[in-house]
Amino acid sequence: MGIRLDIALLRNFVAMADATTVSRAAGQVGRTQAALSQQLKKLEQAVQQPLMIRSGRGVSLTTHGERLLAHAQRILHTHDEAVADLTGETLSGRLRFGCPDDYARVFLPSLLQSFASLHPQVFIEVVCATSPRLLERLKEQSLDIALVSQPDSPERSQFLRREPLVWVGSKGGDAFRREPLQLALSDPDALDHLAATTSLDRTGRRYCIAYASGSVAGLTAVVRSGQAITVMTLTGVPPDLHVLPPSSGLPALPSIGITIQHTGRHASRLSHRFEAHVRSVLPTL
Fold it and tell me: What is the pLDDT of residues 200-237, one digit of tens each?
């Protein structure tokens, strides 16, 4: 008889992978650490491969674990979609969702389409802005939930994914050679702005902010004109722009983490369901 992948085992495996510690995963799924460890052992026996390595700092995936995680996320999404369809379990209402501009083009279509297929009676109002502005809206409760960027840190278990920041210019352009360097950057408290100016200050490279805007569309238009360069997440770089390589002489930039946050303890059932959906789908995009 071939391998059978139990849905409950897969769900707890994904919880452990996301939480990076058994104790944190146990709290999230309502099981004891011993029970989760036993379920992991059963799953490893089923696939006949080691899936996780435990250490004092938590758990990490083996190569086989990484491969299974991608399959498990897809299986669980399809399973939950089928259950919702067959049981008639539907959600309705309006959700105010914030998303940074540079992620919108890449992440929003899949996130919204897949959630709509499960819950067609939900209307999601999308607000695109820089992460500091989205955090302000969450605090004011004019948003229910938002994706936000945070500085990279050792506490990466909170991140849905990590994204490197990169220098971006027009294809064939030479704006990166100009003195002083001409920059097109978003809000002064946004991570791309801070990363660019901090790295250039550290290396002593002269620069000026030639264009400042919270709109990615405006920033990329200036970059396309060849008048300036910008900083973006690697995922967010449009295909018609160029990631500037280390040979351009520009300083290295840090990575950032993507997290999801909501208004607080009184988040609605709809917010919790959409958050779970984002946590399941976003790492696979």
Answer: 999 999 999 999 888 888 899 999 999 999 999 998 89
Strand, helix or coil for residue 244 = coil
Q: How many folded domains does the chain comprise?
A: 3
Query: Residue 33 — φ and ψ, nearest 5°?
Result: -60, -40
**Tokens coding 167:** 């220098």
Residues 52, 113, single domain; the answer is no
Residues 99 and 38 both lie in one domain: no
Residue-number span of the structural domain to which 191 is assigned? 163-255
Residues 58-86: tens digit of each pLDDT:
788 899 988 998 888 888 877 776 776 66
pLDDT in tens, 261-273: 887 656 677 888 8
Q: What is the sign, positive or negative, of the torsion defined by CA atoms of 142, 147, 151, 155? A: positive
Question: How far is residue 156 from each of residues 24, 61, 210, 234, 256, measured CA to CA in Å?
Answer: 13, 14, 34, 18, 10
